[in-house]
C-alpha cells in the first residue's frame, strides 16, 4: 500500500472484489460446498460427522449438514439458503438441490470465462428451468390417494426417502408408521399442522426395531414429587383436565406483604394460604377429572392430594405436549381453576403410564380426535436416534407432499435423465447462445445419476451412457435410472423408487434460482467488522490466556502455542489485505 | 481445513474459522474411526467372561472405581474421541435396556469393525459391508430364537432363575459366594415382581451399601432400610407394630409463604408469642399422639425442643428423610403422606411389623430398618463388604444379576452361554453366506468370523488356547448338531484335549433378549460408524 498515493473511498480493511474473477471465485466456492455434501446422496451415500465443539452430529441430511458447516463465504451461503428452503418447503431432497445448483454453475462456468454476459446466461437458465419444471409436471403420474394403490404409493415414497438414511434397513417398519401418522392428519384435513401434531420422541437404548407409533399422545414422565408412585397409573375413558396453573403452596403475589398484630393471627394467614391451594385442588377434583396435567409445576402437596383421591397428575408438561393432548382429547387448557365444568375436559379411550426402556411414558390412546400421533424412536446411541429422527422427519414431509401433490415421478436419476434429454432436444430447435446454455443446463442435470453411481462405486461413465441411450431410443425408457443393487440401469418406476413430483419441481426451480443469483453478482463488498480491532486483540488475549490457564501444560508448549497463535493471527490479517487489494 | 485457492491464486474462505477446523474424509476417515472404536473395544475385551479381569478407574476427583462391568468402565473412562463415544453409548444403552452383556456388546462391535476394515481393504463399499452385516444379524437373531430354550420357573421353583443369576455373577468380583448372592438377587426381584403381568418395578428394590463386614454379611431385608437414625438417643430403638405418621411438614410454628412481618412492641406481646410457639409444639405432638402413631417420620428437621417433647410423649422420631425414601416408606407401609398436622388421622398411618435401628461394628453409624410392612412389596438389599469399592462393585454386580432375573421373568427364553450361542450363530450365518451371490457374501462371512471372536476372547481371558478351544467346540457342534456345546472354562480338559462341554448340563445360560439385543445393537452402531466418510471438527480453541 505504501508509496502509492491512493484515494481512499472505503474504510480500511474493506474487502472488495469485482468483475469476472469475482464471479468465477464465487462459482468455485459454491462447487466446493457442493463437493462436501455430494457424497451423502443416494442409498449408498455416506454420513458426515460434524463436531462443533459441544455436540456431535452424524447426519446424511443435506440441510442439517449445510447448517452445521457454518459457511462464511457470502456467495456460498446462497446454497445453504436453498437447502434450507427446500427443507422448509418439501422437507426432503436437500442434498440434491445443492448438488444441482453446484452442477449448473459448473456447466455454466466455461461461458462466463469465455465472456458471455451473465444476464444472457441467467435468462436462458431461467427458461431452461421453467421448461424442466413443466416437463416434470407432464411426466408425473397422478394417483388417487384413497385407493389401495394410493396407500402403496405413499409407502413407496416414504421408503425412497428413507433409502439413503441410516435406518434404510428398517423401511418395512418405519414406512407404514409414517404413512399412518400422516394419513390420520389428512383425513382430518389438518395436514399443514403436521409439525405440531406429529411428535417424535426419542428414547436412547434398545433396538431400532422396537420403535413404535402411538396413535395419540405420549410424553415422558415429568418431574414428580413424593406421592407420585401412590397414584393410579391406568385409566379407562378418563376425563382429562388441562391447566396452565401452578398447584403449589406459595405466596399468591410476589410483592405482597402481610402485617399482623398478634400471634393468633399468624395461624389465620397460614390457614388462608392453605385454603387457597385446597380450593384449587378441590375444584380440580370436583369437576370430575381423573387426570390433571399442567404446564406449570404441580407440587408435592397437590400430588399427594390427588393421589389420595385416585387422580393422576403431571406438572411441568411441555407446551407442545400439552397442546397435542388438548388437540387429541378435545380438552381446553385452562388458566384458572375457577368455573371448571364438564365441557372443558378432554377424554380418551385409554391412559397408561408405560415403561419404555429406562424411561416412563404417559400414553394417551384411542382419542376421540385421532389427529395426533407420537412416534417413539429407539436406538443404540443418542446420535443414532437423532439421525433417525431427521430421517423420519424427512419421510413425514415427503408423504405429506405426496398427499398434496397427488403425483409421483420415478427417482434414481430417471426423471433427471428424461428432463435432460428433453432439454437437449429442445436446445437444438433454437438459435443463438441459448442453445449452448440450455444444453449445458441439460447436461448439468445428469449430475444426479452420476453422483448416485459415484457414491455406490460404479463406473459413472458407463452407466450414464447406457442411460442416455435408453432415454434417447426408447419411448418406454423414460423411467430408466440407476440400479443401485446391481450396478446397472433399470426401470426405477417398476422397482418402486418414487418421489413426489413437487419435490423435484421445487429442487429444480430452487437450484436454478440459486445459480442465477450467484451469476448476477459481480462485486462483493465485505465491510470490516466494526469490532474487528478489539475482536482481534481479544482473540490474541484469549490465546495467551489459554495456555496459562492450563496449569498442567508444559511451559514450552505454552510459549509455542502463543507464538503459533500470534503468527497465524498475522497471517490472517495479511490474507485479508491481499484480498482487499485484489 | 487448509485454504482453497481459485484459478487467480486468491484464497477464499468458505467456512467460518476455516483454518481452525479439521477435516478428514473418504476412506481415511472411515479407517480412522474404525481404529478409534477398535481400541476402545480392546480395553474392555479382557473384562469379558468368568475369568475377565477388573479395571481400576480413577476419576478427576480421585475417586477410585474397580469394576469389570463394561458399561461402568466405558462410562468412567471419559472417552474423548467422537466415534469412540458411540461405543460408550452403545454399552450404556445395553445397560439401560437389558442390564447385562455390556462388555459383550462392545467386544462384538469391535470385532465387526475389525472385519469391516479387512473388507474395506479389499475395496468393498462401506455401506455394502454394513448392509451385509444387517442381513447376517437378522439370520443370527433368528437362529438365536430357534436354539432358545425355555426355563420353567414358578414362585415355588426359583432354581432356574438362580442358576441364570449365577452365570451373570460368575464374572464378577462377588463370585466367591455367588449362590447366596444369586439367591438374594432372585428373591429381591421375585419379591416385587408381578408374575401374572410379567412386570417388575425396579423402583421398589432399594440397594444400600455400607462398607464394613464381609460380602457374606450382605442380606436381603423384606422392607426398607434408610440411612438415618432415631433423632434422640433415649427414644425407643425397636418399635414393634409400628404405626408411623409420614409428615412432609416441619415441627415448627407454621409460617405463611407470603412475605410477612410481626411487630413486637412490648414485653407482654413477646411473651405471648413465646407462649404461642410453645402451644404449637404441644399441639402438634398431641395431634400426632392422638392419631395413634408411635413413630414419626419427618421429611424436615425439628429442633431440640420438639425432639424433647416427642421423647416425653414416648414417640420415636426420624428426621430429614429424603423425598424418595418418604415415598417408598409410604408405599411399603400403606401409609399416606400427610402435609400438615391438622390432617393426621389413624387411617393415614403406615404400618410395619417392626422398626429397629441397627448399628454396625463398633462405629457410630446406624441405619433404620423397617420390616414386615403392610404392603410387603418393597425390598432392600443391604450390601456389606471390606471397603467402599467392593461394596460399589457388589452393588453393580447385583444390579446386573437382578436385571437378568427381571428379563427372565418378562421372557423366560434363554440361550446357552460359554460362547455356545455365538458359535451356533456363527455356523448358521456362514452357511447362509454360501447361499448369497455377490459382495454381500463376504460381509456375511465376515460377520460369522466376528461372532467367533466372543468365544475366542472368553478362552483368551481364561488362559486357554483360544483357537484350539473354539475349533473343538465348533466341530462338536457341527458333528453332534447340538447348539448347546460351548467352552467349558472351568472344567478339565476332556479326552480330545479340549474343554468343550454341553452348557446345558453345567447350567450356564443367558437370556435370549439380552443376546439378541447385543447383536442388533452392535450391528446398528457398526453401520453408523461405517457410514461416516467425513469428519469435521472445530479447532482446539472452541
TrEMBL record, chain A:
Keyword Cytoplasm: yes
Disordered as annotated region, ranges: 561-582
One annotated Gene Ontology cellular component of this protein: chaperonin-containing T-complex
Keywords: ATP-binding, Chaperone, Cytoplasm, Nucleotide-binding
Main localization, broad class: cytoplasm
Domain of life: Eukaryota
Localization, UniProt: Cytoplasm
PANTHER family in alphabetical order: CHAPERONIN
Record function comment: Molecular chaperone; assists the folding of proteins upon ATP hydrolysis. Known to play a role, in vitro, in the folding of actin and tubulin.
Protein name: T-complex protein 1 subunit eta
UniProtKB/TrEMBL annotation, chain B:
Subcellular location(s) of the protein: Cytoplasm
GO MF annotation terms: ATP binding; ATP hydrolysis activity; ATP-dependent protein folding chaperone; unfolded protein binding
Keywords for this protein: ATP-binding, Chaperone, Cytoplasm, Nucleotide-binding
PROSITE patterns membership: TCP1_1 (PS00750), TCP1_2 (PS00751), TCP1_3 (PS00995)
InterPro entries per record: Chap_CCT_epsi, Chaperone_TCP-1, Chaperonin_TCP-1_CS, Cpn60/GroEL/TCP-1, GroEL-like_apical_dom_sf, GROEL-like_equatorial_sf, TCP-1-like_intermed_sf, TCP-1_chaperonin
Cellular compartments per GO CC: chaperonin-containing T-complex
PANTHER family membership: CHAPERONIN
Family named by the database record: Belongs to the TCP-1 chaperonin family.
Record protein name field: T-complex protein 1 subunit epsilon
Species of provenance: Chaetoceros tenuissimus
Amino acid at each position: 500500500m505504501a508509496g502509492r498515493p491512493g484515494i481512499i473511498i472505503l474504510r480500511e480493511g474493506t474487502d472488495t472484489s469485482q468483475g469476472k474473477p469475482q464471479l468465477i471465485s464465487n462459482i468455485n466456492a459454491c462447487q466446493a460446498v457442493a463437493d462436501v455434501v455430494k457424497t451423502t446422496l443416494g442409498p449408498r451415500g455416506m454420513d458426515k460427522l460434524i463436531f462443533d465443539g459441544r455436540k456431535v452430529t452424524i447426519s446424511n441430511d443435506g440441510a442439517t449438514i449445510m447448517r452445521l458447516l457454518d459457511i462464511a463465504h457470502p456467495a456460498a451461503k446462497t446454497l445453504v439458503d436453498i437447502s434450507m428452503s427446500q427443507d422448509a418447503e418439501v422437507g426432503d431432497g436437500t442434498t440434491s438441490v445443492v448438488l444441482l445448483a453446484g452442477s449448473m454453475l459448473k456447466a455454466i462456468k466455461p461461458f462466463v470465462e469465455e465472456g458471455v454476459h451473465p444476464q444472457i446466461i441467467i435468462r436462458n437458465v431461467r427458461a431452461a428451468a421453467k421448461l424442466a419444471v413443466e416437463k416434470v409436471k407432464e411426466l408425473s403420474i397422478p394417483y388417487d390417494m384413497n385407493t389401495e394403490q394410493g396407500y402403496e404409493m405413499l409407502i413407496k415414497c416414504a421408503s425412497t426417502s428413507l433409502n439413503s438414511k441410516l435406518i434404510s434397513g428398517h423401511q418395512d417398519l418405519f414406512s407404514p408408521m409414517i404413512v399412518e401418522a400422516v394419513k390420520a392428519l389428512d383425513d382430518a384435513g389438518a395436514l399443514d399442522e403436521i409439525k405440531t401434531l406429529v411428535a417424535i420422541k426419542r428414547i436412547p437404548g434398545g433396538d431400532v426395531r422396537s420403535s413404535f407409533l402411538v396413535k395419540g399422545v405420549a410424553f415422558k414422565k415429568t418431574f414428580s414429587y413424593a406421592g407420585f408412585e401412590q397414584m393410579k397409573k391406568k385409566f379407562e375413558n378418563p376425563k382429562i383436565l388441562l391447566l396452565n396453573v401452578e398447584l403449589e403452596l406459595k405466596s399468591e403475589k410476589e410483592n405482597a406483604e402481610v402485617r399482623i398484630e398478634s400471634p393468633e393471627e399468624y395461624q389465620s394467614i397460614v390457614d388462608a394460604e392453605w385454603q387457597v391451594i385446597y380450593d384449587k385442588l378441590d375444584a380440580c377434583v370436583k369437576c370430575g377429572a381423573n387426570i390433571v396435567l399442567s404446564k406449570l409445576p404441580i407440587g408435592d402437596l397437590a400430588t399427594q392430594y390427588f393421589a389420595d383421591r385416585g387422580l393422576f397428575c403431571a406438572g411441568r408438561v411441555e407446551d407442545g405436549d400439552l397442546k397435542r393432548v388438548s388437540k387429541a382429547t378435545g380438552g381446553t387448557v385452562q388458566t384458572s381453576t375457577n368455573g371448571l365444568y364438564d365441557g372443558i375436559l378432554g377424554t380418551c379411550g385409554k391412559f397408561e403410564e408405560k415403561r419404555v426402556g429406562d424411561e416412563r411414558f404417559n400414553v394417551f390412546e384411542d382419542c376421540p380426535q385421532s389427529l395426533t400421533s407420537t412416534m417413539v424412536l429407539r436406538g443404540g446411541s443418542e446420535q443414532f436416534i437423532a439421525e433417525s429422527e431427521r430421517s423420519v422427519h424427512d419421510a413425514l414431509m415427503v408423504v405429506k407432499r405426496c398427499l398434496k401433490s397427488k403425483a409421483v415421478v420415478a427417482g434414481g436419476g430417471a426423471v433427471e435423465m428424461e428432463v435432460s434429454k428433453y432439454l437437449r432436444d429442445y436446445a437444438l430447435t433454437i438459435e443463438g447462445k441459448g442453445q449452448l446454455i440450455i444444453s449445458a443446463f441439460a447436461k448439468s442435470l445428469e449430475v444426479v445419476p452420476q453422483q448416485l453411481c459415484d457414491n455406490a462405486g460404479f463406473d459413472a461413465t458407463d452407466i450414464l451412457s447406457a442411460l442416455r441411450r435408453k432415454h434417447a431410443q426408447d419411448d418406454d425408457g423414460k423411467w430408466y435410472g440407476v440400479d443401485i443393487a446391481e450396478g446397472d440401469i433399470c426401470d426405477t418406476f417398476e422397482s418402486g423408487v418414487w418421489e413426489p413430483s413437487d419435490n423435484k419441481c421445487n429442487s429444480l426451480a430452487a437450484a436454478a434460482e440459486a445459480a442465477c443469483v450467484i451469476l448476477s453478482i459481480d462485486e462483493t463488498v465485505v465491510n470490516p467488522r466494526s469490532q474487528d480491532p478489539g475482536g482481534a486483540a481479544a482473540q490474541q488475549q484469549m490465546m495467551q490466556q489459554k495456555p496459562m490457564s492450563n496449569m498442567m501444560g508444559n511451559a514450552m508448549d505454552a510459549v509455542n502455542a502463543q507464538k503459533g497463535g500470534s503468527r497465524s493471527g498475522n497471517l490472517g490479517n495479511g490474507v485479508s489485505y491481499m484480498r482487499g487489494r485484489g | 481445513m487448509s485454504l482453497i485457492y481459485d484459478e487467480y491464486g486468491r484464497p477464499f474462505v468458505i467456512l467460518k474459522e476455516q483454518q481452525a477446523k479439521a477435516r478428514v474424509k473418504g476412506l481415511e476417515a472411515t479407517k480412522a474411526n474404525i481404529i478409534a472404536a477398535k481400541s476402545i473395544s480392546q480395553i474392555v475385551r479382557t473384562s469379558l467372561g468368568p475369568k475377565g479381569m477388573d479395571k481400576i478407574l480413577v476419576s478427576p476427583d480421585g475417586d477410585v472405581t474397580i469394576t469389570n462391568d463394561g458399561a461402568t468402565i466405558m462410562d468412567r473412562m471419559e472417552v474423548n474421541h467422537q466415534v469412540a463415544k458411540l461405543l460408550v453409548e452403545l454399552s450404556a444403552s445395553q445397560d439401560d435396556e437389558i442390564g447385562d452383556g455390556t462388555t459383550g456388546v462392545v467386544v462384538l462391535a469391535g470385532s465387526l469393525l475389525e472385519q469391516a476394515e479387512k473388507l474395506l481393504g479389499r475395496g468393498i463399499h462401506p455401506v455394502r459391508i454394513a448392509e451385509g452385516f444387517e442381513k447376517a444379524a437378522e439370520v443370527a437373531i433368528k437362529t438365536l430364537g430357534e436354539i432358545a430354550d425355555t426355563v420353567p420357573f414358578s414362585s415355588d421353583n426359583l432354581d432356574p432363575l438362580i442358576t441364570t443369576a449365577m452365570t451373570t455373577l460368575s464374572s464378577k468380583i462377588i463370585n466367591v459366594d455367588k449362590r447366596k448372592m444369586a439367591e438374594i438377587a432372585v428373591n429381591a426381584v421375585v419379591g416385587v415382581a408381578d408374575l401374572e403381568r410379567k412386570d417388575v418395578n425396579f423402583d421398589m428394590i432399594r440397594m444400600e451399601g455400607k462398607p464394613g463386614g464381609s460380602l457374606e454379611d450382605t442380606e436381603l431385608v423384606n422392607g426398607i432400610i434408610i440411612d438415618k437414625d432415631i433423632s434422640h438417643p433415649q427414644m425407643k430403638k425397636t418399635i414393634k407394630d409400628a404405626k408411623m405418621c409420614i409428615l412432609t411438614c416441619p415441627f415448627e410454628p407454621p409460617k405463611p409463604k407470603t412475605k410477612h412481618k410481626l411487630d413486637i412492641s412490648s414485653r407482654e406481646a413477646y411473651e405471648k408469642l413465646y407462649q404461642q410457639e410453645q402451644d404449637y409444639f404441644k399441639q402438634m405432638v398431641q395431634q400426632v399422639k392422638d392419631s395413634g402413631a408411635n413413630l414419626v417420620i419427618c421429611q424436615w428437621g425439628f429442633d431440640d425442643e420438639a425432639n424433647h417433647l416427642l421423647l416425653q410423649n414416648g414417640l420415636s422420631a426420624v428426621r430429614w428423610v429424603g423425598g424418595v425414601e418418604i415415598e417408598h416408606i409410604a408405599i411399603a407401609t400403606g401409609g399416606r403422606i400427610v402435609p400438615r398436622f391438622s390432617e393426621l388421622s389413624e387411617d393415614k398411618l403406615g404400618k410395619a411389623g417392626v422398626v429397629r435401628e441397627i448399628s454396625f461394628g463398633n462405629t457410630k453409624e446406624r441405619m433404620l430398618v423397617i420390616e414386615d410392612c403392610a404392603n410387603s412389596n418393597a425390598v432392600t438389599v443391604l450390601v456389606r463388604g471390606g471397603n467402599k469399592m467392593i461394596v460399589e462393585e457388589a452393588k453393580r454386580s447385583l444390579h446386573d444379576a437382578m436385571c437378568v432375573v427381571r428379563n427372565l421373568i418378562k421372557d423366560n427364553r434363554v440361550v446357552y452361554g460359554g460362547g455356545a450361542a455365538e458359535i451356533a450363530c456363527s455356523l448358521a450365518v456362514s452357511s447362509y453366506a454360501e447361499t448369497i451371490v455377490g459382495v454381500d457374501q463376504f460381509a456375511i462371512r465376515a460377520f460369522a468370523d466376528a461372532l467367533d471372536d466372543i468365544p475366542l476372547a472368553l478362552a483368551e481371558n481364561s488362559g486357554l488356547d483360544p483357537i484350539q478351544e473354539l475349533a473343538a467346540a465348533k466341530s462338536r457342534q457341527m458333528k453332534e448338531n447340538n447348539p448347546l456345546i460351548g467352552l467349558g472354562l472351568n472344567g478339565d480338559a476332556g479326552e480330545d484335549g479340549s474343554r468343550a462341554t454341553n452348557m446345558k448340563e453345567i447350567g450356564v445360560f443367558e437370556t435370549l433378549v439380552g443376546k439378541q439385543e447385543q447383536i442388533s445393537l452392535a450391528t446398528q452402531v457398526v453401520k453408523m460408524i461405517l457410514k461416516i466418510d467425513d469428519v469435521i471438527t472445530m479447532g482446539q480453541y472452541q
